[in-house]
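Bumping my old thread because nobody answered last time. Still need a sequence for this structure:
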């Protein structure tokens, strides 16, 4: 791999070409590998090494209406960069080898930045992230582009329900080691269909899909977005749920309401939730139920299929968010009644 990196560096005049040290970085749930290049003069770059079969459309389950001829990370980066949305630079790319050379944004994620912070500082950081999100939504709503892969993929009813079933399969049956009662399963399926049917009627727009604390870098006092290769057209409020109902950071309801207020204050008339606080709060709870059930199932899937149990620690917080949202949306309270038979988080 080092020979390929040298060749890529030589092809670019704006980045160094010389002796470097290559250090592998800790990974998350992704199949991609990351390395840091460190040159003798202190300059650093990031290597993204794509997994075998990297030409596939996305790592997350998705659907597309057209052939994907360009790696999604590159395609979506170009679209977002053109809109002046803060994403890392791509300096070089080898399609044959699945290697990208990227700008180094450091290691300080939002999760790290707010560690041990007081409430005032936490709200400051999150309010700034809410501004970035609102800005991304304004720009993408105003300038959609069919050349961007995200516009050929959609969170439709099938995909949303697949994610709900992902929870039934892994968050329940696999976690418990046996299927739940047939009657309970069919009732959950009916409720899941009702839930995703209501979600598909919400306002839709460009959706990052994983707009959370580990994918927001704090770099030179600015916020930069990463891990956007799975972007698609989805419920506008989805990314706000990803930010505020993050499995890795526990925000209380007062903090969430304060950050929602900051988000609302930054919206412009083009935005579907402009002056729509009550609607935002209900839609936020609907998406919390859907996304956090999916997350609980996904963490169990990563443990069972990818043999990585490290994310199981985040299952209780994910399900606590679901339980709290269900208490505010009585139409779906029976989900909690059924889950309380099987999961300690609902007891």
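Sorry it took so long. Here it is:
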């Amino acid at each position: 791999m080092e020979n390929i990196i040298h060749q890529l560096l030589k092809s670019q005049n704006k980045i160094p070409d010389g002796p470097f040290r290559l250090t592998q970085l800790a990974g998350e749930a992704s199949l991609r590998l990351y390395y840091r290049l460190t040159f003798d003069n202190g300059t650093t770059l990031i290597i993204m090494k794509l997994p075998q079969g990297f030409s596939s459309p996305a790592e997350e389950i998705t659907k597309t209406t057209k052939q994907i001829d360009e790696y999604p990370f590159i395609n979506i980066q170009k679209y977002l960069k053109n809109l002046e949305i803060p994403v890392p630079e791509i300096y070089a790319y080898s399609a044959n080898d699945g290697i990208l050379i990227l700008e180094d944004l450091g290691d300080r994620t939002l999760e790290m930045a707010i560690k041990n912070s007081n409430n005032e500082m936490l709200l400051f950081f999150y309010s700034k992230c809410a501004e970035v999100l609102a800005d991304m939504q304004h720009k993408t709503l105003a300038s959609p582009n069919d050349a961007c892969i995200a516009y050929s993929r959609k969170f439709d009813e099938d995909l949303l329900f697949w994610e709900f079933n992902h929870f039934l399969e892994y968050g329940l049956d696999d976690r418990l080691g046996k299927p739940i009662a047939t009657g309970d399963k069919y009732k959950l399926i009916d409720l899941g269909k009702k839930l995703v049917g209501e979600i598909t009627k919400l306002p839709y727009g460009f959706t990052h899909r994983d707009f959370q604390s580990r994918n927001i870098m704090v770099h030179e006092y600015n916020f930069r977005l990463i891990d956007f290769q799975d972007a698609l057209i989805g419920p506008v409020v989805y990314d706000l749920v990803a930010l505020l109902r993050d499995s890795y950071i526990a925000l209380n309801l007062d903090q969430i309401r304060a950050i929602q207020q900051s988000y609302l204050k930054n919206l412009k008339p083009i935005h579907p939730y402009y002056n729509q606080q009550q609607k935002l709060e209900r839609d936020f709870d609907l998406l919390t139920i859907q996304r956090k059930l999916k997350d609980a199932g996904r963490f169990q899937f990563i443990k069972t299929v990818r043999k990585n149990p490290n994310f199981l620690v985040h299952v209780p917080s994910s399900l606590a968010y679901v339980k709290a949202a269900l208490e505010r949306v009585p139409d779906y309270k029976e989900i909690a009644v059924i889950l309380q038979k099987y999961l300690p988080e609902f007891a």
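The chain has a mean pLDDT of 93. Let me know if any region looks off to you.
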